[in-house]
Structures are given as C-alpha cells and as structure tokens.
Amino acid sequence: MRNHFLYTTAEIRQLEQLAINAGMSAATLMQSAGRASYDWLRERWPQARSVVIFCGTGNNGGDGFVLAQIAHEQGLSVDVRYLGDLLHLTGEAKNAMRQCQGAGVDMRSFSSDENIEADIFVDALLGIGLSGDVREPVLQAIKYINQHGQKILAIDVPSGIQSDTGMVKGSAVRANSTITFIGIKRGLVTGEAVDYVGELICHHLNLSADIMAEVQPTAQVLKWEQPLRTLRPRSRYAHKGYFGHVLVVGGDHGMTGALRLAALGVLRSGAGLVTLATRPEHAVLMNVLRPELISYGIKQAEDLTPLLERASVVVIGPGLGQSPWAQSLLTAVLSTDLPLIVDADALNLLAKNSQYRSNWILTPHPGEAARLLQTDVATIQSNRFKAANDIQEKFGGIAVVKGAGTIICCNPNEFHVCTLGNPGMASGGMGDLLSGIIAGLITQTLTLPQAAIAGVGLHAKAGDLASRDGERGMIATDLLPFVRKLINRS
C-alpha cells in the first residue's frame, strides 16, 4: 500500500470515516490497532514478559486497553495505569476498557509515587490531534515513562508530539519504537519528533487500496532515487560540454572553504565544468587546491557578465558575505534567466529585498528561513511544513527547508520529506556541498524539482554511509566518495 505518503490528522480522520462508511466498524478499527500493537511488541521485543500500559481517556487509550487484554490472554504479565476518570470514556474506548477489566487485567489509576517495573512501557495516552501544550496529569506521566521505562512503545504517536508538525508540545514520550496506524503522520518524520519516535512502522488496519486512494495527502517521503534513474548512460562520444557548466559565486574574505565545498559537490555529482567567481586574492588559491576548477577574481559585478554568458546553472551564496561587493554580485546574477541555487548569505541578502521567480531553488536552514519570512527560528521549527510553503509562495521556485527531516516544497501545499540523514551532518559546509550537488544534477537534464529531490536524498544518503565510521567528527568532504558511488549506482 501507500507507505510513502504522509498524512495530516484531518486526512487520517477522513480515511477512518470512509472505512466506517464502507462497513468497517469503529470497534473493528480499534481491535485491529490493539492487535497490531501487540503483534509488533512481540516481534520487536520477543523476550519481554511484563508490560505496563499507560492509557488515556480517548481512543488512543482504547487501543491500549485492547493491547492490554490481548497481552494478558497471551500470558504476559500486564498492568494498566490509566489517567483521568474512566467515567469520561465513551464509545469504543469505553467498551475496550470494560472488556479489558472483565478479562482480569490489573487496572489502577496512575500515581507517580508508585514504583512500576516492567520490561516494556506502552504509551497510549494521547494519540493524534494534540493542539495545546500537554497538561497534568499527562505531563507527570510522560516524565515518569521517560525516566522509568526500560523499553518504550508508543501507540500511533508519542504522547506530546503534534502529529501534523512534529513539534513537542511541552513534553513528549521518548519512544524506542512507534507503531502508527492507517498512514504515517507527517509530523513524525521532521523537526523535534525525530528524536522521540524511535523505530517507526505503519499498520494500515486492513483499509482497502480503494479507500486509501480516496484521500490524496499533500506530503510524501522523498523518493530520491527515481529522478536519478532518468539519467541516461553517458555516450562514449560525449565531452565535458555535454554535461553543463556551473558557475559558483561566493568566497568573501575568510570564507573560501564554503565556495570550494560547493564546487566539489558540483564536480562529484557529475557536471562537466565548474567555474568559481570569487575575490581576486582567492582565485589562484582555488586553482592550487583543486586543479579541476576554473577560478576568476571578480572585482566588480561587471566582471561576472562573461562568466554568466558561459554558464548553464548558477550557485550563489556559499561564503558570499553581505558586503556591498556581495550585494552587487547577487544583483548581477538575478538579472539573468539562468536556473539558480540560492544559499547561505545570498538568502540573507534576498531577505532584505525579496523577489519572486520560478526557476530557482532556495535552500535555507531554519535561521535563514526565519529571515526570509521575517520571523524567528522557533516559529519556523514549530511548523516546518508551513515555513516551506510560505517561502515557496512568497519567493516562487522551490523551497528546501533544511534540518532533521528536510522538507522540499515544489508547489503550494506539495511536500517531499527526507527521512535520511543523521546528526553527524550537523557540521559546517554540509549545506554548501548540497547546493553544489543540486546544481550538478540540473546540468545533467534533471528538472529543478527532480534535482532538488534527488540532490537532497543523495546528500543525506551519502551522509548516512559516511556515518558508519561514527557521527562525531564527520565533515562535509567525508560525503564526497559516497556521492560519486551513489550517483553511478542509479
């Protein structure tokens, strides 16, 4: 089924209603969720003998009661700790609780003073749809679970995670694994949530393909290898001119490294030629460090004109700075019709004088995104989907909001989310390398959306391969051998 799609809470609820309209009862959905949770718990931790399930008073708690009953009937030692007044339970959650109670499962009101021991803690407190911050007594229970749980399974969504955005609403359960239902919630794969979800699996609760096809979600997991498969085998007759010419503009005083990293990304992703436009005093240094590069010293914006005439794609921003020199180069680049990759300080300059254009890719990290939208980083991170969409609508082209779960927005309310990458990539120069990789792919006939999708995925996958030797101490150039291998494997 459609495991690559990512769903909002509203889309999941729409699918639930469609399933009920088609004859699947709410009770069947809850029983299926509880059964799937039990099956996954046994598969994930086959040696576990004792389970404590923390149940809230909503449908997520109902899933937990079903799991508790099944686990009890299968011979596990099971305890339920519920929060709130069981009299507030309604519908299928109430029925599930009564059946669990009738099966003889030990059920007690949660108390943080109790010393609870078990192989597995199960979080069935809140589920989807959380909007405001977590409040007591759930807040206390989350703290208890995180401090005392040996292994933690979250049902549907770790409690405290906003399932549409991935934001932690005050506090959240840090699960070792999360089993989510019907479809993957889009907030589970980006932002803060990635530190709380653990191993993520999805069970569709036996909804038919026809029902699933009734809802078209606005987000999906990045399928980065597909665009690379469109790259044709290279003709033996081809020469460097066949594979495009990328101009990389930047490298102000003290920042030539960013320029070089972007250029290396261009080269290793397969472009035919790379020219650097930088401060005059840096031009010779670039040639010495990497003889494959063409490098020109640029005193004034007019010096860029012949270079722009020869280029097929431009990367602007790595190490550019925000001086009058930098602004003049950006103005010159924006006067062309060439496809552009805009990164780093070029984004900061753009934030001061916004423009709209269709043939560029903007690649901000959260700080740069905040400046583009004239807000703060906390606002960006609170809803990364909205940030990507707002940038795309304001500036046109394609927005790539970097970070854990990088989000690409090619059209309004159309998102691709990268689930690859690792914390080792949180080091200087990774973004410069990415901008070069994307540019190099454009020169090889990929469209801008294809290049953004393939470039982000290729970069992240290379990072994951490089991290096999450890995440600490990883640097951008560690990715380069893997970039070359991956692009030739496609």
Shape: elongated
Number of distinct helices: 18
Helix % is 25-40%
Give the mean pLDDT: 95
CATH topology of the largest domain: UDP-N-acetylmuramoyl-L-alanine:D-glutamate ligase
First-residue to last-residue Cα separation: 24 Å
Major sheet: 12 strands, mixed
Name of the CATH first level of the largest domain = Alpha Beta
* Relevant CATH superfamily of the largest domain: Ribokinase
Radius of gyration: 26 Å
User: Proportion of β residues?
Assistant: 15-25%
Poorly predicted regions: none
Arrangement of strands in the largest sheet? 8-1-10-19-18-17-16-15-14-11-12-13
- Count of individual beta strands: 19
Fill in the keyword field for this structure.
490 residues; alpha/beta; Rossmann fold; UDP-N-acetylmuramoyl-L-alanine:D-glutamate ligase; 2 domains; twelve-stranded mixed β-sheet; seven-stranded parallel β-sheet; 18 helices; elongated
Topology:
Elements: E1 5-7, H1 9-21, H2 26-44, E2 50-55, H3 59-73, E3 77-82, H4 91-102, E4 106-109, E5 120-124, H5 138-148, E6 151-155, E7 177-181, E8 184-185, E9 199-203, H6 209-212, E10 219-221, H7 225-228, E11 245-249, H8 256-268, E12 273-278, H9 280-289, E13 294-297, H10 305-310, E14 313-316, H11 324-334, E15 340-342, H12 345-352, E16 360-362, H13 366-372, H14 377-382, H15 384-395, E17 398-401, E18 407-411, E19 414-417, H16 430-442, H17 448-466, H18 480-489
Parallel strand pairs: 1-8, 2-3, 2-5, 3-4, 5-6, 6-7, 7-9, 10-19, 11-12, 11-14, 12-13, 14-15, 15-16, 16-17
Antiparallel strand pairs: 1-10, 17-18, 18-19
Helix pairs in contact: 2-3, 3-4, 8-16, 12-13, 16-17, 17-18
